[in-house]
Design a protein that fits this description.
This protein is an alpha+beta fold. It folds into 4 domains: 133 residues, no CATH class; 147 residues, no CATH class; 91 residues; 145 residues. It has 17 helices and 16 strands. The strands form 4 sheets. Strands 14-13-12-11-10-9-15-16 form an 8-stranded antiparallel beta sheet. A 3-stranded antiparallel beta sheet has the order 1-4-3. A 3-stranded mixed beta sheet has the order 6-8-7, with helices on one face. Helix 15 crosses helix 16.
Length: 550
């Protein structure tokens, strides 16, 4: 089929699609398609819906290969959509002077001139859905929000962020509108949103976005109440579906009555919904990610790198403020109070930029204590250079543990050895070996009844760039205990302290190297081991001639 005919066919499908959306159960399918393809125009959304209602992510043939490392499966038929094309044409137009006024000839008629103008046309291009491709997996593109999860609360936070009018809560006993059964409402006369205070988080989220839709679509609208409700509910559906909130309870059976309306009016309704959804999704997505991050971090371990990213500028600001006054000379308790006061001043001054920091400072005890303590230390440290030092990293236990590990196992750390065995008088042997890139095992082991038992065994991960060491797992065979540390705010510090004490004890108990295994060779004799240790900064752990045979 010639491209011109395909373009004509596309516009015919669009016009038919407008009517079809309102004449069957396709309306909910259209809204779902709208949530997935909010960046697409109404016309292209209708085209995708008409050709593949279950589409979730589309891209061109080359784009799948270049951007996603996926390829279109053999035999797949593409979906056609419209792409704008600008053509330059010559038109005879009225000539104007520098002020834009038409220039007239001696007879008073406008003088004509040829001008090159841009003319917008549309052509057909082909895309493929992800279900028609194979290759590398894609990261999850959608959240699944349920119950009182961090995601739901982050969504509510985001609605508050974008809403420019007051949001209040009331009980059905004290509000006549809520007493009638409404979950919430938007008052145009007062320009405010009211939500039933007894709702659960999930329903608060749905109610808020519905009433917010009313506030931006119908603040000064003369549309009838049915159309207002359709538009608000439709917009709420698109936003909820896009952010992963359950939409199964939404019903649009009543929409069928609109199928007899003028197609231009129907298209206007759809366009208003889709264009508004596009604007709101683009506005909400970065805010939602920030809000989700702050709520998630509030009950997780926060690494030195995270602390540095979030708070180094804040530390510099508060430290410089205190140093510029007499507050640096305050007693310890008073200085901590001054630090607290200056932090809240910073939060208020830069509320949008420090939203995560303020939330964590109020809700994460370790974050608050670490931040205050680090500022306190730097206020007392005359040698501190705020523009070069990164104390959250350099003074962390994770850095101290990295340095300890390097002092006892630098060949393993530097990929110069795969395995090292250590021994000490009256102690179980120590084993350190490579797991994979930047992951290692430390274990104190002995053979009992033919089985190798570890008390303890720890898997650790190293951040080489920042010289930090993190515990990942902890195991005690004698107690039948195995724990994954992950980002647990209690386990990570506990295991970090334990690891620090363990490695310090290794040094204090004079552990010596007993065997070294490298990629292509091993060292087991005292002489070979002493030479290896001397060459790899482990001279202090090299065995004496008689210790290897002990």
């Amino acid at each position: 089929m010639p491209k011109e005919d395909k373009t004509k066919r596309a516009f015919e499908m669009i016009e038919q699609g407008v009517t079809d959306v309102f004449s069957s159960d396709n309306y909910k399918k259209y809204l779902t398609c709208c949530s997935r393809f909010h960046n697409y125009s109404l016309n292209n959304t209708l085209l995708i819906l008409a050709q593949k209602p279950d589409a979730t992510l589309v891209a061109g043939y080359q784009s799948w290969q270049k951007n996603f490392n996926r390829h279109v499966n053999r035999g797949e038929k593409g979906l056609f959509i419209l792409a704008p094309v600008t053509n330059k044409i010559i038109r005879l137009m009225d000539k104007a002077d520098e002020n834009g006024n038409p220039i007239l000839d001696k007879d008073g008629n406008p003088v004509k001139e040829e001008r090159v103008v841009n003319q917008l046309n549309y052509t057909v291009t082909t895309v493929f859905d992800i279900s028609q491709t194979s290759g590398d997996p894609l990261p999850s593109l959608l959240h699944t929000l349920s119950g009182s999860s961090d995601e739901i609360l982050a969504f509510i936070d985001t609605v508050y962020d974008i809403c420019t009018i007051p949001i209040g809560y009331a009980s059905a006993e004290k509000d006549s509108v809520l007493a009638s059964g409404a979950k919430g409402y938007y008052s145009p006369s007062q320009d405010r949103i009211v939500v039933n205070m007894e709702l659960e988080d999930m329903q608060i989220a749905k109610t808020l976005i519905h009433e917010y839709a009313h506030s931006i679509l119908h603040r000064h609208s003369d549309k009838d109440s049915d159309q207002k409700e359709i538009e608000a509910e439709s917009l709420a559906f698109v936003l909820c579906d896009h952010f992963g909130i359950d939409t199964s309870e939404y019903s649009f059976g009543y929409i069928a009555g609109y199928s007899a309306e003028d197609p231009s009016r129907l298209k206007s309704i759809l366009n208003d919904i889709q264009s508004t959804a596009h604007q709101l999704i683009d506005q909400m997505e970065p805010l939602f990610e920030d809000n989700l991050r702050k709520r998630t971090m509030a009950h997780e371990y926060i690494s030195p790198v995270d602390m540095d990213d979030l708070c180094n500028d804040l530390l510099i600001q508060v430290t410089n403020t205190i140093r510029s006054t007499d507050e640096q000379q305050l007693e310890d308790t008073q200085l901590y109070q001054a630090i607290d006061s200056h932090l809240y001043e910073s939060f208020q001054k830069d509320a949008s930029q420090l939203k995560i920091q303020e939330y964590l400072y109020s809700n994460h005890k370790d974050f608050r204590n670490t931040l205050k303590q680090m500022i306190f230390q730097e206020c007392r440290n005359d040698d501190y250079n705020p523009y070069e030092d990164h104390p959250f990293i350099s003074q962390s236990r994770e850095r101290a543990n990295y340095e300890l590990f390097a002092s006892i196992a630098s060949p393993v750390l530097n990929n110069e050895a795969l395995y090292i065995q250590y021994g000490a008088i009256g102690m179980k042997d120590l084993h350190i070996e490579v797991l994979d890139d930047n992951r290692f095992v430390m274990a104190r082991s002995e053979v009992i009844n033919g089985d190798l038992c570890s008390d303890p065994r720890m898997e650790i991960r190293v951040d080489q760039a920042n010289r930090l060491l993190y515990p990942e797992t902890w195991q005690m065979d004698s107690m039948e205990v195995y724990q994954q540390v992950q980002r647990d705010p209690i386990k990570v510090p506990q295991m970090g302290r334990f690891l620090n004490e363990w490695m310090t004890g290794i040094q204090e108990n004079s552990y010596k190297v007993k065997a070294v295994y490298c990629q292509n060779e091993c060292f087991e004799s005292s002489e070979d081991i002493r030479r290896f240790c001397k060459e790899h900064n482990l001279a202090g752990m090299a065995p004496k001639p008689r210790e290897k045979e002990r």
